[in-house]
């Protein structure tokens, strides 16, 4: 099971990083906090002090096409906000 899918790079997530030394990730929906902690520590070599998880509901999407009105949903996902020990940082662009 690939636990960490990708980092969330939004304005809100970058504000968390600047103010509170927290990083947001999209993670596997079956992963628990212990598995997420070990995966982040192994991948980035940092010390994790706290983890908050939430399931983000998918947005309802619709559009009008030649065939008529089409509606659907984007998929839901699990988000993990990871707090890292003071003085340590995660550089997302070095692992590309």
From TrEMBL:
Protein name: Large ribosomal subunit protein uL23
Family membership noted in the UniProt record: Belongs to the universal ribosomal protein uL23 family.
Record keywords: Ribonucleoprotein, Ribosomal protein, RNA-binding, rRNA-binding
GO molecular function, one term: structural constituent of ribosome
Summary of the function given for this chain in its UniProt record: One of the early assembly proteins it binds 23S rRNA. One of the proteins that surrounds the polypeptide exit tunnel on the outside of the ribosome. Forms the main docking site for trigger factor binding to the ribosome.
One GO cellular component term noted in the UniProt record for this chain: ribosome
NCBIfam families documented for this protein: PRK05738.2-4 (NF004363)
Coiled-coil parts of chain: none
Organism: Rhinopithecimicrobium faecis
The keyword rRNA-binding belongs to this UniProt entry's keyword annotation: yes
Name of the gene: rplW
Keyword Signal belongs to the record: no
Quaternary structure, from the entry: Part of the 50S ribosomal subunit. Contacts protein L29, and trigger factor when it is bound to the ribosome.
Any GO BP: translation
Segments passing through the bilayer: none
Taxonomic placement: Bacteria, Pseudomonadati, Bacteroidota, Sphingobacteriia, Sphingobacteriales
